[in-house]
Each structure stands twice: as structure tokens, then as C-alpha cells.
Specification:
The chain is an all-alpha fold. It has helices at residues 3-8, 11-30, 34-53, 69-82, 84-95, 102-114. The mean pLDDT is 95.
């Protein structure tokens, strides 16, 4: 979704864009397609910025229960900014298990605890 479209989108459409982009990001990483991963990351960041600008970021919290691990882990990292009590346990769960989300979860938690985690 283009920036102009993000500004016109409803909150539900923004959450849907965020979720679809997170799924696409995971698929691109699995395929080792860095270009597609970068495009998906930009979509995630754009949707998140628009939600945050509307004070609507908490609408992402249901994604913490997504079956898709990429959706869940990305939403958890963003939740550290507005609902850390809900995002932190999800990231701790990923950090305690082997898998592709382990290292990003560890780094997100470390940076957040040190106060250096930057949000888009």
C-alpha cells in the first residue's frame, strides 16, 4: 500500500496491511529473497507509522496471538513501545526457543532493556 493509501486507510485496513506484510516478510526470508524482505519490511513500517500517528497502535495487540510466527514476533517487538507488558512475554518465548525468531527476539529485548530500541 502506498503512503497516500495508508493515510486514507481505515484502522482495520492498516492492521490487515501490517499482518499481510509480516507474512510476506517471513516468506521472503525463508526464500532468501532480500529484496522482497526489504519491500515487506517497508510495508510493515509504513503501516505501523500510520497506526502510531493515529494513536491506534494498540489495534495490533490481537496479532500477538497470530498462528504465524513472523506476525507474532514483529507485532511483539512493536508492542514494546506501547504495551511492553504484552509484547515482552511473546519475545521472551521466542528467545527461549530454537528457530528463526530467536535471535531477533533476543536483540529486540536487549535493545529495549538498554533503551536503544528504535521504532519506525
Amino acid at each position: 500500500m502506498k503512503m497516500r493509501n495508508l493515510q486514507r486507510a481505515s484502522i482495520e485496513e492498516l492492521v490487515q496491511e501490517y499482518e499481510q506484510a509480516a507474512v510476506a516478510y517471513g516468506q521472503a526470508l525463508a526464500a532468501a529473497d532480500y529484496r522482497a524482505a526489504n519491500r515487506a519490511h517497508d510495508r510493515i513500517a509504513g503501516a505501523y507509522r500510520e497506526l502510531r500517528s493515529r494513536a491506534a497502535a494498540p489495534h495490533l495487540l490481537p496479532l500477538l496471538k497470530s498462528e504465524n510466527e513472523y506476525v507474532r514476533s514483529i507485532a511483539a517487538a512493536h508492542a514494546l513501545e506501547f504495551a511492553p507488558e504484552q509484547g515482552e512475554p511473546v519475545l521472551q518465548w521466542f528467545a527461549a526457543r530454537p528457530g528463526l525468531q530467536r535471535t531477533p527476539a533476543e536483540y529486540a529485548l536487549k535493545a529495549w532493556r538498554e533503551g536503544t530500541l528504535k521504532f519506525p
